[in-house]
Amino acid sequence: MKQNKENTNAFLIHISAFAGFIFPFGNIITPLIAWQTLKDRSNFLDEQGKEAVNFNISYSLYIFILTLSFIPLFVGSIFRNFNNFNNFNQVSINFDSHNFFGFMGFASLAGIVGVIKIALIIIASLKAKEGENYKYPFTIKFIK
Q1: Tell me: the pLDDT tens digits for 2-39?
Q2: What angle do CA 139, 59, 119 make, to 5 degrees?
Q3: Beta carbons of 56 and 17 less than 8 angstroms apart
């Protein structure tokens, strides 16, 4: 019975990352709190908690970098449409075909990364429920 409770707690640590859809940084805060309260109970919970927190911090960092790479495209579209530097009333953001496909490329990349995150959290949760030690791919080890 003890092993089943550990597996359920590890499942909850992983699945708690979906709190990020409810409040900002919930994908980091809730697994961190769950891990901190459960880590002393077993090595399995400690390892899975670290893995969940590291994955969610890494994912947030990747999304932040993706967002920063989107800014030059947006700023470039503003400066590309200056007709006259003395008349700032003519500045507009033009969504011509070049900008549109750039925006759609970033949006589709962000969507793909989001779907991969959801899939990885579900896979990790199910593996933890079975008692397997799951390692997320492309995770930076912030907490060792």
Answers
A1: 678 899 999 999 999 999 999 989 999 999 999 999 99
A2: 85
A3: yes
Measure the CA–CA gap between 95 and 103, rounded to whole angstroms.
9
Residues 138, 120: Cα–Cα separation, whole Å: 11
What residues have CB less than 8 Å from 12, skipping those under 6 apart?
Answer: 34
Q: 34 or 72, which is more confident?
A: 34
Distance CA 38, CA 6 (A): 9
Question: Token pair of 48, please?
Answer: 């899975």
**Which pTM does this prediction carry?**
0.80
Q: Shortest CA distance to 113 belongs to which of 66, 72, 77?
A: 66
Give the residue from 28, 24, 26 showing the smallest Cα distance to 50. 28
| pLDDT 10s digits, 44-69 | 999 999 999 999 999 999 988 888 88
| Rounded CA separation 69/79 (Å) | 17
Q: How many CB atoms lie within 10 A of CB 45?
A: 23
Residue 98: other Cβ atoms inside 10 A: 13
Please state, in angstroms and rounded to a whole number, the distance separating the CA atoms of residues 19 and 34.
12
